[in-house]
Structures are given as structure tokens and as C-alpha cells.
Amino acid sequence: MCGIVGYVGASAPSSRPRDVVLAGLSRLEYRGYDSAGIAVATPGHDAVALAKKAGKLVNLEKQLAERPLPESTIGIGHTRWATHGAPTDANAHPHLAAGGRVAVIHNGIIENHAVLRDELLAEGIEILSDTDTEVAGHLIAREVLNGADLATAMRSVAKRLEGAFTLLAIDALEPDIVVGARRNSPLVAGLGDGEAFLASDVVAFIDYTRDAIELGQDEVVRISKEGVEVFDAAGNPIEREPFRVEWDAERAQKGGFDSFMDKEIHDQPTAVADTLKGRMDDQGRLVLDGGIIDPYVLSSIDKIIIIACGTAAYAGMVARYAIEHWTRIPVEVELAHEFRYRDPIVGIRTLVVAVSQSGETMDTLMAVRYAQRQGAPTIAIVNAQGSTIAREADAVLYTRAGPEIAVASTKAFVAQITAAFLLGIYLAQLRGNKYPDEIDALLDQLEEMPAKLQRVIDESEPVRQVAKDLVDERTVLFLGRHVGFPIALEGALKLKELAYIHAEGFAAGELKHGPIALIEPGQPVFIVLPSPRGRAELHSKVLSNIQEVKARGAKTLVIAEEGDEVAAQNADHVFYVPAAPTLMTPLLQVIPLQIFALELAQAKGYDVDQPRNLAKSVTVE
Ligand code: F6R
After folding, report:
1. 179 with 275, same domain?
2. Whether residue 25 is found in the same domain as residue 118
3. Is 420 touching ligand 1 by the criterion CB < 6 Å?
4. How far apart are CA 362 and CA 121, in angstroms?
């Protein structure tokens, strides 16, 4: 939600700050694309130079081609997902203060902005935008005009702000530093050779360095050519251990695909394989990526609550079936934003598992903190290294899907399911629910999944064709039972967010309790059909559901296991996936639905990487 980038490096003015900032913004556009802006400072100038424009980054780039910025030594840039104020040029960041001497950019929501705005207006300060950000800019400028250096000004203003923020500021009279502060919103520093970076996500500077420092809560950072200095809220210097990003710049490219989403769909076999790699040690213990939960604690838990939002919550729903089956521990899956407001029963014997691609989703983060306050041990299943949820949970299991840039989640989903399965297998082993040979068999079955995912992708032409044929449909329904139910929900979510058409996922058994009234002749209905070899009774129940909608004229699109001839007899179209153990089939069945949504949205001419109104990382509640 809003992408921010800052750069310091050039000794003499050059175009590098502008180029690095714009390249970073193009990498961060997944975080929001309501407007984009850049400010640079050049020694000898008493005001920064600014360019900003409503709409996607391309609009700003056009403006810069007509009216280039001067060469500079530092720069900051912002890509916006609007919260306070409409997505206009005036509300685009950066915002200026002190007559253009100070420029600020911001991600988050400053909750006490109205009080601060009144204070500034009473002092006669003119506020030009509707944003909460500009208020912070004027407060910083006031400190600077009173003689404070920029880092001190940032620190004292950050103390006055309530809510969530990452703020970056530059001062035209200090054209060799960029200063930042964060609370409940991400900020990482990149360590280059004679240059340094600040950004919402390492992907913004991965072309220049893989060495990064994650900033902690309420810390202030000052970057210069000499490096990165971090201070606590009292201004004391803090030592922060840098981490090395596991992936390189190539993984953040489209790699010959038309869209990041298509590329990320193709990345899925690797995402699953990498998530599985080296996970169990000689004694069958799960190898975590950070933190620790005492095996004694894990042996004594009597409930698991998986908290997540959106697609990550559907991954949690899939995992629930497996973890309960393997461990016999009751598992609840709850939307993070509902969890902490309903007075949930959580205690020291409840294991709370937070699932999040970004590791920054505010709802999930707040739910983790709530669970910790109740004394619950917490594990994060997270994709983004060093992210807030990964750092704050007691232990972390990374999903190793690599950077997911398309706003709609695909490869993170299959990696989340895989990681949650590993956790379930480990708990089953630890608590003696499964014999060692059963554990080995489960791990072997998981190891076979990447090749099967690859086959689904390689054989996806039929679903791509059907998507193009259905481009004018106004609504599509999705049905699934057992582990197919969350897949139906995920298929509907993908279609809504990419193709902007009404889509609804239902538990197939629920059909006759109401949703069947929606079926009219020609209504497309996707059905996720269980394997006839796995649980035959589920297979025949879903077949009956197919008959029920078919009898009312629905167009049936069935995802079935290879060799299931009966499926073909009941379907207008059938998309086959390789046979797999029942609990692992969601890893395969979701792929045709992802591809269907991608193709249909593309056939409509929509931008599949940046669907309207959305942002990848939802850092507001
Ligand atoms: C849908 C999608 C969202 C996210 C949700 C949680 O395609 O991407 O529903 O799954 O916003 O985000 P993370 O996983 O970053 O916590």
C-alpha cells in the first residue's frame, strides 16, 4: 500500500538518483498506482525539484520526458494507493514544505492528522492537499527551520504521529542524506557500494544490492554515501545486522512473459520445490527459518488457529483439512480482521499460525500481536524475508516463492499450502500421530507435486481457450467440496479481482440451501471434482451436484483427475489434472482457475498485474 523509495549516492550531481528512484518505483508499482511522484535535491539549490502526476507511473514518465528534472545527488519517489484525498495531482506525493526546501513521502495512515492540521493552520501554514502526509511534511519543516538537522526533526515529529507510517524526507540544504522513520509499516535499507537505498520492499533496489537492513518499530534511519545509520526513538544509535536477500534481480523480471502474473503462475512448480527444500533434519524436525518454539510447547497445544486474509486465508483453509487429519488437533481458520475483534479463546496452548505473502498485512500483524498478548505461541508462514510479521512472530517458516509482483496472488498460495503441510507433518511426527514411515511417505508425495504442477501448466491450453470464449459472461459460479471448497473460493476471488465480473464460490453441498436459485440456462459453473480414487463418496456427491446445476441449464466446467471418464460425461468442458493424494490435489486444481481468470481478464483488455482499486500489500486496517 504505497511504495516508497529513497536514494543517496552520487558525489556530483547526475541523473542516477532520478534513474534509480524511477526504476524502484516501477518495481514498487504493485503497491499502488493511483499516482506517482519524485523529488530530487542538488547542492547549491535551496529548494528541491519535484514532479508528480495522478495515474500510473507512465504518466509521470511522460511528464518527465517533456520537463526533465535537474541532475541531483539524492532523490525520493512514491507510488500511491489513495487513502486520504482523491487520486489527483495535488494529492500525489512528494509533498513540499518550507517553500520547497523539504519534501516528504509517506505510506500508511496518520490517525491524528486532523488535530495536527488545525495546529498548523492556526500558525498560518498553508496546506495544499487533502492528505495526512502533507501535515507531517510541515511539522518536519518547522523543526528544520528552527535549526534541527533532518534526522532529529524526523525523530521528534514521528513521536507526535499516531497510526501507521513509513515517512521519508529530504532537505534541499542537506543534499547528501535521506531520512526515514517507520511504525507498523515496512521500511528496508539497501547497502550499496558508495550508495544507499531506502524502500518499502527490497525489490526496489535488488538491481543494485542484495544486502539489506530491516528497520524496527519506531526507528529512524539516515542514509548517506557512507552507509546506513539507525537510531531508536530516543536518538541512540542502534546496530542492526544486515541480511542477504535469497533471490536475485532476475527473479523480479517478467522473464519473457507478457505479465508478472503469467510468469508467477509458471513459477509455481519451483515455488513448491524451493519451499520443500531441506526442511526436515536427520531427526525429522522441521527446519525453521528463524526463531524457535519449544517442541514441548508444540507437543502440548490443544488447538491451532490459522489467521490470514484473502488468498492466504484460503491457503489456510486447505491446510486445515490436512493438519486436522494428520495431527488430530482441532484447527480453526479465521480472517485476521475478524479474529481479534470477537474476543477469541486463545491461550498458551493455542498455536497461532499467521499466513501472509507480504508479511506486512496490517490485519494479520495486529492479529499476531493480539494472540501474543494472550500468551499464544505464534508461527508465521511468510514469503517476504525480514518483513514485520516474520520478525514479530515467535518463529518463521518462509515460503521461498521468490518475489510475487502481480497484485493477484498465485505462487504464494501454493507455497503457503506447502509450508503449512510441512508444519502439519512435523506436528504429526512430534506428537506421534504418524509412524516414521508414514511421515516419509507424506514427504515423498509432496516431493512429487512440483512435476505435477508443471504438467498442469504445460497442458493448460484448453482452459485458456474456454476463458476467451466466455469473455462476455457477467457472472461465474464456483463449487467445491472438502479441499475443493477453498479452491472454489480462490477461483472466484481471482476472477473478481482480475476480470471485474461477479464470481461466487460455494461449498457444493450448500447449493441446494439457496445458491441453486442463481442457476439460469447458460450460467457457467466451475466445479472442482474430487478424485474417484480418494474419497469415492465425495466424488459421487459432487457428481450429483453437477447433475443438479446441469438439469437447470448451467454450462458445467469441471476440473477432474486424469482418467475420470465419468467427469467428461457430465461436463460441457473438462480440465484434467494429474492424480495426487486427496489432500494435495488443491495444489493442482487451483492452477486452471488462475489461468482462467488471467486469460479472461486479458481477453477483456485489462491489466492483470495491476487490477483496479487494489494494492498488493494491505498495510491499513
Ligand atoms: C488476492 C490477494 C489478497 C491477499 C491478501 C493477503 O489475490 O492477493 O487476497 O492474499 O491481501 O495478503 P498477504 O498474503 O500479503 O497477507
Report:
1. no
2. yes
3. no
4. 31
